[in-house]
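ok trying again, last paste got cut off:
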Amino acid sequence: MTYMDMLGRRSIILKRSINRLIMKKNRQGLSVQESNFYQSMLRKWHQNEHELSVVRKQP
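nice, full thing came through this time. structure:
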């Protein structure tokens, strides 16, 4: 598995987790701990997407 494959897989996993939390937030709301976890996952996803775009631009 290459670094780019790993970043792609991580992105998919983070998107699924974020999607589950969004659905829960819409249904019943999130606790403070869940909200903090959600925000940290969003930060990780943005960082991951940035790293993925940098790797794609390299020759």
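cool. The CA atoms of residues 5 and 31 lie 33 Å apart. The two ends are 18 Å apart (CA to CA).
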